Amino acid sequence: MNMHKPAKLTLLISGLTLLASTPALAMDARSAGLGGSSIAHGKGVHGAYENPSSLMRMKRDGQVVHLHLGASMDVQDDAQIVDTVIDEETLPEDIEAEIDSFTGSVLSCDFNSAPETVCLTGTQRLAELSSRVLDVLNSVDGKPVQATAAADFGVAYTKWAFPIAMHYRTSVTGAAATAVAQSDLDYVNTFATVLVDDQLTYDELASSVPLSISADGQTLSVVQPEDALESDLEGSALVREQLGLSMATSIELGGFNVDIGITPKFSELRAASLSTEISDRFDDTNDSLEQQFEDNEIVDTTMNMDVGASLSLNHLPLRLSVVARNLAKETITTRDNFVFETTPQLIVGGAFSLGSLTITGDMALNEAKADNLDTQIVAVGVELGRSLMALRAGISHDNARNDDATALSLGFSLGPVHVGGRITDLNAAQLGAQLAFSF
């Protein structure tokens, strides 16, 4: 029996961190600071990405060239995996050393010993480590980790009669979860409770299923993790590379000048998923989790389109907008039949401006999936400032989230540098930063 395998007991912790990757529903830093409200008050290249009709407003404002370079990340860590990895960084190595020294220990009792006979001492360290593992298992059981991150670049030219914008984005979306079996909790709990008094008696040895006297009658036998663990790990990841081309024009409709725009989007998708039992991870002949992900990867290409429209009221500093995002449903199915979906969503929004003060708001009218992340945001934001400096704040609520649904936002800009973020608590946050020029 491989004595190195018990060290992998904490794969229930570390395996999740391998499965949980990072993003797709990224927004620019300016929008993040406004709670996510963007379709009626977007600026520059990313404004065109959120609502292609905004290109016409930029043209009327006399702007000609726009550049954008940004990145963002959104993490939903209900299981507090990030904190666990930081706080328990050495736990796998520590418990490895203890179990290795524990298994095969020489006992000071035999099959004929009295119940109260002490068979082994110096067990408290293993009990403490097992208790920490037990806390981790209880905290992650059934709680998903989801993360999205993206980097994007774009240019726009708004002098022509039909202004255009081109944007490239690469993003990855990942999710992971574990279903901890009760038998696994019992297995770890045996070490945490039986050994806590720093000794193992014959009575405890005889009544603890994972522990027994070896056939030689002199050493300790331990049921190995690969023979005991039954918990499941599930993970998925989607990488998207997307190229979009936005264009816009204006039409006269009912006495209003209505801006309209479209964004065809071409994507390459690389998707993979994994469902495995914890016990499989203790077999050294099995491929690593990373290798299994690579083996399960599937590649596909898709085309989709966004359509947007905006109008400014004649006698009020109010701009109204609507965007139909991802008009065609996208799906990609991994080799083990896990399905990633992106579905259409209709969003309405407005922006009310008085000098240097602007109040913005967006509302998604239906729940949708963006690379499998459910979303239906209602957001309100306030921006105070000009092009050289601005402060932003906002609040949003995502009706598609059961936890961490309401977020507060803050952001600022100094010239072309924009920073913004949203946070619900320490386990769910979004942060973005970008360089954006319009001149």
Secondary structure layout plus pairing:
Blueprint: H1 11-19, H2 29-33, H3 44-50, H4 54-60, E1 65-77, H5 81-87, H6 91-102, E2 118-121, H7 124-140, E3 145-157, E4 164-179, H8 182-194, E5 199-201, H9 202-207, E6 211-213, E7 220-222, H10 225-228, E8 232-253, E9 256-277, H11 289-296, E10 298-312, E11 318-325, E12 330-333, E13 339-342, E14 345-354, E15 357-364, E16 368-370, E17 373-375, E18 377-385, E19 389-398, E20 406-414, E21 417-425, E22 428-438
Antiparallel strand pairs: 1-3, 1-22, 2-5, 3-4, 4-8, 6-7, 8-9, 9-10, 10-11, 11-14, 12-13, 14-15, 15-18, 16-17, 18-19, 19-20, 20-21, 21-22
Key features of this structure:
single chain; 439 residues; alpha+beta; Porin; 2 domains; 14-stranded antiparallel beta barrel; two-stranded antiparallel ribbon; 11 helices; disordered N terminus
How would you describe this structure to a colleague?
The structure is a single chain. The chain has 2 domains: 24-79 and 143-178 and 233-438, Outer membrane protein transport protein (OMPP1/FadL/TodX) (Porin), CATH 2.40.160; 81-141 and 181-230, no CATH class. Strand 20 and strand 21 form a beta hairpin. Helix 7 (124-140) packs antiparallel against helix 8. The protein starts with 10 loop residues before the first helix and ends with a strand. 43% of the residues are buried. The strands form 5 sheets. It has a 14-stranded antiparallel beta barrel, surrounded by 4 helices. It contains 11 helices and 22 strands. The chain is elongated and about 100 Å long. By secondary structure, the chain is an alpha+beta fold.
